[in-house]
Amino acid sequence: MERFKKTNLWHITYKVRNDVRFRYYFSVNDSFDDDWEKRFENLAYDRFNKNITIFKDDKGKEDKLRSYAVMLNAEEHIWVKERNNVPKGKLEEHKFKSENLENPRRIRIYTPHEYSQKNKPYGFLVLTDGDEYINVLSAVQVLDNLIADKKIPPIIVIFIDSTETRVEELKCSNAFTDIIVIELIPWVRDKYNISNKADEAIIGGLSLGGLTATYLGLKHSEIFGKVLSQSGSYWYKPEGFECDDSNCWMSNQFKAIGKLPLKFYLNVGVLETKDRMIDTNINLRDVLISKGYTVAFEEFKSGHDYLCWGETLANGLISLIGMK
Questions:
Q1: How far apart are the C-alpha atoms of 51 and 67, rounded to whole Å?
Q2: Please, what are the domains in the chain?
């Protein structure tokens, strides 16, 4: 940034699209070169901007603040806004214990308004990064609004918190996917009235969670018949796998097998990195379509930054289970 002479004011100008949302922050007295770990520790939000995304720690206290801008022609977000006049679902908290998890994991279960154990079993959605979906992306408000407007049928949603082991768990870990399929789903089924039909079960997530959602669909289409991936991290590849411009590791997995009983919603932001995010998501989309899968694909007008994932969660659910 440049300083106005004899003032404490600094300025910089960027030219951006007039229809996007984007996050930004300051790194004061930055001398870190390519050391992004130190740079992230130094980030500060814009105290003069009222548009702030609040991240909380595991005790509910404000942990990080991130400033963002909404350009003049950006689309209005409607699904994430709480409405006082719609019936509200219920959120219940549990501690899920597993011999394969170091500590009990917080699980929260959303049940729709007038949920009943006597009704026909409900379709369900499983989301990793549960706390972010609830507290940053307003997922509960999204669900209440969609159900009230009859855009989707009443569903049950299982929010799984992520911890410091998130990266290890969400890089296509068979140990973690086994916990979900072998332990968590039966545990929820014992307590809640959820369907045992794969075509009524959605696995979803954002970033690495989108990658893992796709991996769970690949490995366990007998449990999950629908995949909802938001900015899936398809740049991921196991050690030893060579990627080029025409493929990514996840695409290769689907190329190598016959068509599974799966339906997909994929999205990626127009401001995300081209090679790691946009190109790999497009590559996976094209491979899936070539194999005969039904794929809804959305390029939303933001980046890898939490500003649109709440709203596009609604778009994904309408695409996968929308009521006609």
A1: 6
A2: 2-70 (no CATH), 90-321 (3.40.50.1820)
